[in-house]
Write a structure and sequence with these properties.
This protein is of the alpha/beta class. The protein contains twelve helices and eleven strands. It folds into two domains: 131 residues, 3-Layer(aba) Sandwich (Rossmann fold), CATH 3.40.50.2000; 165 residues, Rossmann fold (3-Layer(aba) Sandwich). It has a six-stranded parallel β-sheet, with helices on both faces. α9 links the parallel β9 and β10. The longest helix is centred in the C-terminal third of the chain and has 16 residues. 50% of the residues are buried.
Length: 348
Amino acid sequence: MSLEPRTARPSALVLRALGLGDLLTAVPALKALRRHLPGHELVLAASERLAGAVAATGLVDRLLPAEAPGRAVPAALAWPGEGPDLAVDLHGNGPPSHLLLQRLGPRRLFAYAHPGTPGIPGPVWREDEHERERWCRLLTWYGIAADPADLSIPAPAASSPAPGAVVLHPGADAAARRWPKERFAAVARELRAAGHLVVVTAGAGEGALAGYVAERAGLPAGSVLGGTADVPFDRLAALVAGARCVVVGDTGLAHLATALGTPSVVLFGPVAPRLWGPPPGPRHRVLWHPGTDPSPRPGDAHGRAPDERLLRITVEEVLTAVHTLVETAAGPIGHDSAGHPPVDAPAG
């Protein structure tokens, strides 16, 4: 993603300085802005770590690096010269993100209404709303047509390092959203026994977790991708695009599978899938056991132990969901979409 200086074109600055899943749930809103402002330079304020993913959307002209711990708002934006013609707050709904953009002096600012910034008109924030719908509703309120179902990104040009694999991703930013590693290992072991090529992915610092899953499952050497550092986005996207199925918790890789149209089994715990889950349809299976609490956030998404709702999901449920998806979408188990038998390890 280019970090070139500003151009002479009118500019639209979008603030979304969060993670991969947050970026991908904002794709419908970014598409709407791109259509509505074809002559503008569209600039996204986001983590430089996401440069590859931002470029892969094909929607943004320039990345403005912006960092903050967790889900906090960046303290400042390195925006040079005159303010943007338009600033769009896709980051939050309160004064910190509103004021950050206001300080740049934009001619227009699109944001949700908040009593702490009464001078900014906007729609009312709703807690019980899917992220894709939330940001499309914001733009619609300001007269920009946006479709939350328009969420796909282009297929990567690179070849998959493991065509036809079932991809397991046991990691997540918080323990509350990590299904136990022993259960991931059991799923991997059963899938390999059924004839699948199984690959385990890991983000930076998750190497030990992924290695445990691969070792306990008896996977061959080379079955773990990433761990010391993130898997480069072009390689990760190629892997997911060429996968038979992805098994993942409520994290960024789940949204990547959705954006690329790859079948997925997504495991939910502290947060309801109606807020962050894939769209309904035959390509995705959501597993969630909320019990008697119907609220959208029955648990702590940043908790230090696996959420009780996540722990209610069994190995057998996950295996059944995977088998159903791959047999429906890609033919008999143990062969890729072209009918070829699996190999023992990913390439490269």
